[in-house]
UniProtKB/TrEMBL annotation:
The keyword Repeat does not apply. Pfam families: ABC_transp_aux (PF09822), DUF7088 (PF23357). Residues 45-120 form the DUF7088 domain. This is ABC-type uncharacterized transport system involved in gliding motility, auxiliary component. InterPro entries: ABC_transp_unknown, Class_I_gatase-like, DUF7088. The chain crosses the membrane at residues 17-35, 424-446. Residues 157-386 form the ABC-type uncharacterised transport system domain. Keywords: Membrane, Transmembrane, Transmembrane helix. The keyword Membrane applies.
């Protein structure tokens, strides 16, 4: 072998060594950077693998360590590794809140601990925050967000609903009742009770909010006096009105300095969503904490107009305006519905209002909604009625910093491929690509050998 061949061999050896070093460095550098700086991107449609902004904000309101104990097995005949499934679900929450500590306990290996904690199902989680404890068995963002909101809520809120005069019931199952709405409030840590003045002398002093929802019979004068006394003392009120008679509550409207126009709001825009024109579409909202960043449609069936009068006592906001091209129909609805300039009131129409004032060094809050139907069981699922209603109650009860979690639809589900497609993918990755790489390597080796 000549000196030239030796130099050429050494040069190739040096080149190959440098190439190997650079290749190893190139492969190792991303791994090192990934280990030192934990950064990730969610490229799924609708960002289904990331927390919503609302969930992030609820976590931020939990000032202090949050602990969770998950009682789940690693081997389940139907679900597989339940511990891993729950762990993956909780990972985004732990990244958002570093002091969210999660402990896993296998109830099969440690049955005594599971029994002591009162665990009933495989995959149950017990969450604790500042001495309060909640349980979770359904793992999705909405369910966990409700749990976190209950933990974040400062103290229990007591909401009383006036009853005994045919009002809509917060635990009722009828179409006109508010039972589904009541369940949602309970899931978010708001306790609801019926208030019947036949059994109660006055509104309990620890009441955070009184709800009056569409009584069907005239309220006795003594009951109206107690309601007015509650307002005079600074109590918060949610008044749901329909187009029906006032049933003795006209003094309450006078106390709040509101004019309640008879008739039903007609909104032609409802036809675009294939709804009756007697359904008012809420899309124009006033500047208010209830509607802050609330850019959704709400539906108010058979709404009535609420006119805010100038007042030195109350600060009033028109919360919802509807029927931009509609009117208030004062005639009967069983015939042809046509705008009559002499009798009807042209739109836009205010159908919801809030009032507030400072009394006894605290803010008194009142909301008057011109449709009791919008939270009824039959119509709660229309638009974003539920979220609007929860925002209302949170603001009225003094928890306006707790927002409604907007559940996101999962747009990109599982990928289903037929048998030929799976076969092509298998051949491509397991046979064709390895053969291409092998042939390329052999060709490079043969060319170098011939030099």
């Amino acid at each position: 072998m000549t000196p030239v061949d030796d130099k050429l061999r050494l040069r190739r050896l040096a080149q190959n060594s440098v190439f190997v070093i650079l290749l190893i460095s190139l492969l190792a550098l991303p791994g090192y950077l990934a280990w030192e700086t934990r950064t990730q991107w969610d490229v799924s449609q609708n960002e289904r693998n990331s927390l919503s902004q609302a969930s992030e904000e609820v976590l931020q309101k939990l000032d202090g360590p949050l602990t969770a104990t998950v009682y789940a097995t690693s081997h389940d005949a139907q679900l597989g590794n339940v511990s891993k499934i729950i762990g993956d679900f909780l990972s985004p929450y732990q990244r958002s809140k570093p002091d969210f500590n999660v402990t896993f306990i296998d109830p099969e290996e440690q049955p005594a601990l599971a029994h002591e904690a009162g665990v009933q199902t495989n995959g149950e989680m017990v969450v604790e925050f500042e001495g309060r404890r909640e349980r979770l068995t359904t793992f999705n963002e909405q369910a966990l967000a409700n749990l976190l909101m209950r933990l974040a809520r400062p103290g229990e809120k007591r909401v009383m609903a006036l009853s005994g005069h045919g009002e809509r019931k917060l635990d009722g199952v009828g179409n006109r009742d508010l039972g589904e709405f009541g369940k949602q409030l309970a899931a978010k840590g708001i306790k609801t009770e019926a208030l019947n003045f036949a059994a109660a002398a006055d509104v309990p002093p620890d009441t955070s909010l009184l709800i009056i929802s569409s009584p069907q019979f005239d309220l006795p004068e003594g009951v109206v006096d107690k309601v007015l006394a509650y307002i005079e003392s600074g109590g918060n009120l949610l008044w749901l009105l329909d187009q029906e008679p006032m049933h003795g509550l006209q003094p309450l409207a006078e106390k709040l300095e509101l004019t309640l126009t008879p008739g039903v709001v007609i909104d032609p825009q409802a036809q675009r969503l294939k709804l009756p024109i007697t359904f008012s579409m809420g899309a124009n909202y006033g500047q208010h904490p209830v509607t802050h960043n609330f850019d959704y449609i709400t539906v108010f069936p058979f709404a009535r107009q609420i006119t805010i009068n100038d007042s030195e006592e109350w600060h009033s906001v028109s919360l919802v305006e509807a029927a931009q091209n509609g009117w208030v129909e004062t005639g009967k609805l069983d015939g042809g519905i046509v705008f009559e300039p002499m009798y009807d009131v042209s739109g836009p129409v205010s159908i919801a209002a809030t009032l507030s004032r400072t009394l006894y060094e605290r803010e008194q809050r009142i909301a008057v909604i011109g449709s009791g139907y919008f939270l009824a069981n039959s119509y709660l699922g229309h638009g974003k009625n539920l979220d609007f209603g929860v925002n209302l109650v949170n603001w009225l009860a003094g928890d306006d910093d707790l927002i409604t979690i907007q559940p996101r639809a999962t747009l990109d589900g599982s990928l289903a491929l037929d048998e030929p497609a799976l076969t092509m993918i298998a051949w491509g990755f397991l046979i064709v690509m390895p053969l291409i790489f092998t042939a390329s390597g052999a060709m490079i080796w043969w060319k170098r050998r011939r030099k």
